[in-house]
Design goal:
8-stranded mixed β-sheet; binds NADP nicotinamide-adenine-dinucleotide phosphate; 335 residues; 35% helix; 14 strands; 2 domains; Dihydrodipicolinate Reductase, domain 2; 10 helices; alpha/beta
């Protein structure tokens, strides 16, 4: 069996962390074959730092490289749609960073392009691929908690100093950047079921993007979810699943967890150490998502059972509805 040959698009912060995470996987399974940036200088620097053989100064050159198995899209949210379509139309498999795109219309365009070109596509909700979350899903599948009645997920991280978090033109706001993790957690627990109702309240920055949001959702059979997310303050960043016969607490950071409390019994899942400093928390855990993609490609799957495209579409539809209720509108909404 051959190594999976990755092409990275975007030489920014998350691409750096992804490259570091790759080094924790066997080289005979995963190789980064090329990096593309809008700037050739940045691509070359990145390639040197991470020992990547090929550097491109235009994304189109990566799209034309026939020796790439999958493109990892690590550019800003606002670029996912356009750049995603570039690779999908070139017949490339794509792992696209979260949020998948700016709204559900854009996400549906990406999904349609993947279907049309018969290629693999996945939203990079890396959380789903963590061993701790595999254990959560296993426990839920065997109904270890009885009937789940309430799911709570919090994510707050002070990042008002980061331009892409606060500027509307860069796709800012808590919802798209980190709220997406809380909502995907709820959908994971409720198995991709559409909520019966969504009630969101939010406060916005002067730029018009959301600073802090709370969301209450009701699901069938008297089940509920409560989410809070913020780019102004730190929150506990944990998630709790409460059932009639037990509970699971995913300790913070719930989006890349290493500790589970199942009925107060603690289990730890140790992450490998990074070979270079990381930009984000627990990023060597990106290895699980990379390996999930490899397994999907080896099986010839066009989407991941861990993060199916239907979940991504529902996730963005829920985010569209939340934005409608709290009054966040992006220019992409009227395109
Ligand atoms: N999974 C995770 O834990 C995680 C963590 C952080 C971020 N993310 C996601 O990853 C994506 C990138 O985040 P990041 O923090 O890595 O961002 P970043 O470093 O600020 O930017 C990433 C890349 O986006 C491109 N870019 C930046 N500004 C642009 C602009 N004004 N117009 C067009 N392209 C621009 C650049 O690509 P070039 O190199 O080609 O110029 C840049 O290298 C986001 O969608 C974010 O949600 C995921």
């Amino acid at each position: 069996i051959m190594a999976t040959r990755w092409g990275l698009c975007g030489a920014g912060k998350i691409s750096h962390d992804f490259s570091v995470a790759m080094k924790t996987l066997p080289h005979e399974n995963h190789q980064i074959a090329a990096i593309a940036s809008r700037s050739l200088v940045r691509a070359k620097e990145f390639a040197k730092k991470h020992r990547i053989p090929t550097a491109y100064g235009r994304y189109e050159e990566l799209a034309k490289n026939p020796d790439i198995d999958i493109v990892y899209l690590g550019v800003l949210h606002t670029e996912h749609w356009k750049v995603g379509l570039l690779f999908l139309e070139a017949g490339k498999n794509v792992l696209c960073e979260k949020p998948f795109a700016m709204n559900s219309k854009q996400v549906k365009d990406l999904v349609a392009a993947a279907k049309k070109n018969n290629v693999f596509l996945m939203e990079a909700i890396w959380s789903r691929c963590f061993p701790a979350h595999a254990e959560v899903r296993r426990l839920l599948a065997e109904r270890a908690l009885g009937e789940v009645k309430l799911v709570k997920a919090y994510f707050g991280s002070p990042q008002l100093h980061i331009p892409r978090s606060v500027q509307k033109e860069l796709g800012g706001g808590a919802l798209l950047d980190i709220g997406v993790y809380c909502l995907q957690f709820v959908l994971m627990v409720f198995d991709g079921e559409r909520p019966q109702s969504i009630q969101a309240t939010g406060v916005l920055l002067d730029s018009g993007v959301d600073e802090s949001v709370t969301v209450v959702m009701k699901f069938s059979r008297n089940r509920m979810a409560l989410c809070a997310f913020s780019i102004a303050v730190r929150l506990p960043n944990d998630a709790v699943i409460s059932g009639t016969e037990g509970s699971i607490k995913v300790l913070g950071p719930m989006h890349c967890p290493t500790t589970l409390l199942v009925n107060d019994q603690e289990t730890e899942y140790i992450l490998p150490e990074p070979c270079l400093p990381l930009n984000f928390t627990n990023s060597t855990g990106l290895r699980y998502e990379a390996e999930e993609v490899r397994q999907c490609l080896l099986k010839g799957l066009k989407e991941s059972p861990q993060m199916p495209l239907a979940d991504s579409i529902l996730l963005t539809e829920i985010m569209d509805e939340i934005r409608k209720q709290i009054g966040v509108v992006f220019s992409q909404d009227s395109q």
